[in-house]
Amino acid sequence: MKIIFMGTPAYADTILKDLLKAGDMEVVAVYTQPDKPVGRKKIMTPPPVKLTALDANITVYQPSRLRDESVVKELLNIECDFIVVAAYGQILPREILDHAVCINLHASILPKYRGASPIQEALLRGDKVTGVTAMNMDVGLDTGDIIKISKVAIDDDEKADALFLKLTEVASDLTLDVLRDYHKLTLIKQDETLATHCSKITKNDGEVEFVDAIILYNRYRAFTPWPGIHLQSGLKIKSIELHSACRTYTPGKILEIAKDYIVVGCTLGSLEIYRVQPESKNEMDIISYCNGKRLKVDDILS
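^ that's the sequence the OP posted. Answer follows.
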């Protein structure tokens, strides 16, 4: 079968690589986002998907706007059986949706967490289970009929980077299964009454306060490695564990100084903090930080 693949980050790249390994599938074209400047030196960097496609001698298209008439016309001239979309980053216009069966791999159990940050949202809410949904795309945002769902358990201490890798493997396997069995599967409409949405993560989302220990710990899990979490002062909290979920304390109060961590109180619950990074300085262990600031038990970490 012939496939047009659309995707941009590492999540999509893994799926593309498995498609290329499959002997019964031919990727005839790859669409991905334009190269972007990265780092302080703003070096123009191609998406991972582009590099994989070029290595496989597949034609790569990087339109800034997929909806442009010339872009749509060009795509419609490419013969294919399926269009596979994984974290592409652009909305497909109706003309493209009508060109072939368009399958999207979304990293949540739809209709929960439609939108840009489903992996982080599952962690923020403390979910125990998440998954990947393969769906038939329509003109809405993650609203298409469900083809198949693969579920995975979320470990209590699992962070976004680890969950991302787990879901990537699931999405890759699910893609191959769905493409091979598509005409045997029964599509299910999403229940709109259960739909929830999540927005794109920004740097500002990483600011935290010592209010609820569970909520703060889940933000740490969701925002590792990016954007990370930090206090209003700019102090980045790099490594923490949940200490307790009950009792009330003065927010930010140092309750205990152990060998390699401190216990800090929240309005509800407490946390163990192991490593921090002061603004414009290198990451360090929390004991060295406290010694440098002359912080002791009953002082406020801020």
